[in-house]
């Protein structure tokens, strides 16, 4: 899939009426079952940010005010598989944080280097955003990621596919 521009909005969630890709519409409709996501998405609608579909890693680019989202990438976590839609919610959480307080966002996106271990520590922004993701996951009945790095990419068959380990079809 090549990156394709997609202006963000959901008439139901924000009152806006912009064109969406079918994958994004499906994800937003699914995520809108979560009250916490609906609240965050209303703020996202005010931010002027857009969503760009990508076949790369999902992320938020604060310089361009773009959420890059890969609709094929779910997360495999200890308890099962999280939907790629939940990954979109996670990136929208970053975009809203930036919209609300750009200075704090930029200060907290640094991944500090730990010279004793030779590794980078997770940024404060990722730690701050995780409870939002967990809340949405709980409200949608998806498995939780307890720490930011506790996930591996999973090629999902659809944007809303998620399951608990051991459930039929969850491998």
Distance between the termini: 24 Å
Please tell me what the overall shape is.
Answer: globular
Low-confidence region ranges: 1-18
E-strand count: 10
Quaternary structure of the protein? single chain
Spatial strand order of the main sheet: 1-2-4-3
Average pLDDT reading: 87
Secondary-structure class = alpha+beta
Largest sheet: 4 strands, mixed
Radius of gyration, CA atoms, in whole angstroms = 16 Å
Strand % is 15-25%
Order of helices and strands: EHHHEEEEEHHEEHEE
Which bin fits the share of residues in helices?
25-40%
Number of helices: 6
Write a concise synopsis of the structure shown.
The protein has about 170 residues and is an alpha+beta fold.
Describe it for me?
With 171 residues, the chain is an alpha+beta fold. The chain has six helices and ten strands. α4 crosses α5. It is globular.
Topology overview:
Elements (H helix, E strand, L loop, with lengths): L3 E3 L4 H4 L7 H10 L3 H13 L2 E4 L5 E3 L4 E4 L3 E5 L2 E3 L1 H17 L1 H7 L4 E2 L4 E2 L3 H17 L11 E4 L7 E2 L7
Parallel strand pairs: 2-4
Antiparallel strand pairs: 1-2, 3-4, 5-6, 5-9, 6-10, 7-8
């Amino acid at each position: 899939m090549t990156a394709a521009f997609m202006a963000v909005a959901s008439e139901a969630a924000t009152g806006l009426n912009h064109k969406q890709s079918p994958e994004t519409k499906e994800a937003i409709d699914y995520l809108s079952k979560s009250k916490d996501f609906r609240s965050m998405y209303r703020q996202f609608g005010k931010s002027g940010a857009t969503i760009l579909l990508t076949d790369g890693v999902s992320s938020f680019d604060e310089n361009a005010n773009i959420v890059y989202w890969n609709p094929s990438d779910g997360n495999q976590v200890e308890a099962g598989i999280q939907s790629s839609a939940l990954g979109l919610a996670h990136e929208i959480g970053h975009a809203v944080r930036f919209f609300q307080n750009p200075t704090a966002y930029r200060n907290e996106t640094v991944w500090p280097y730990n010279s004793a271990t030779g590794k980078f520590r997770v940024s404060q922004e990722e730690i701050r955003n995780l409870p939002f993701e967990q809340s949405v996951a709980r409200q949608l009945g998806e498995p939780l990621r307890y720490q930011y790095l506790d996930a591996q990419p999973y090629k999902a068959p659809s944007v809303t596919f998620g399951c608990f380990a051991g459930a039929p079809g969850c491998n």
